[in-house]
Specification:
- The protein has 183 residues and is mainly β.
- The chain is 9% helix and 45% strand.
- The strands form 2 sheets. Strands 1, 3, 4, 6, 9 and 11 form a 6-stranded antiparallel β-sheet that branches. A 5-stranded antiparallel β-sheet has the order 2-5-10-7-8, with no helix packed on it.
- A hairpin with a 2-residue loop joins β7 and β8.
- 26% of the residues are buried.
Length: 183
Amino acid sequence: MKAFVTAAVAAALLLTTGSASHGQPVADPPCAGQIHPNPGFERGATGWTAGPRIVVFGDATRPAHTGRGYATFAGLDVTRSDLLRTTVTVPANCDLTVSFWVRTTTTEISRGDYLNVGMAVTGIPPKTRFSLAFDGGALWRQYTMSSGTATTERTATVSFLGSETAGNGVTAFDVDDVTFTLG
């Protein structure tokens, strides 16, 4: 009797779902979803290669776009550069869209300080996608770039390079919520 009930339940399940279950979880499609483990810097520099003092938490005078953590570049009125970068894998036939938020605070009056944002994708020469200067604004603004699709798996490296020159005034570039979405 027990075998009959088990067979009847399995047949009912098969009729209801239209297929037999093989006990494997359904995977997300390969070209869907956010793929970076720490897009908002809430876990510090995890998943990123960052110089010292780039990721900050809970600054009440300059709050993050969302959450508590964000990356900040320059802001010291000294001649220096700060680099933040990460590499992700882009599956074959997928497009990678990278979106990020930037805020600029400055006392600068000339264009000596900047934040360059680049993306290097396997098979495509690296290039700067955005070059932001002191006049970007004190409010968070969103920027987006895309890798395009290819028939093979690729890697994409996204980099933020902040550069400041002493004597021109103080400029700080803040970056938050860097999403890496496959589509």
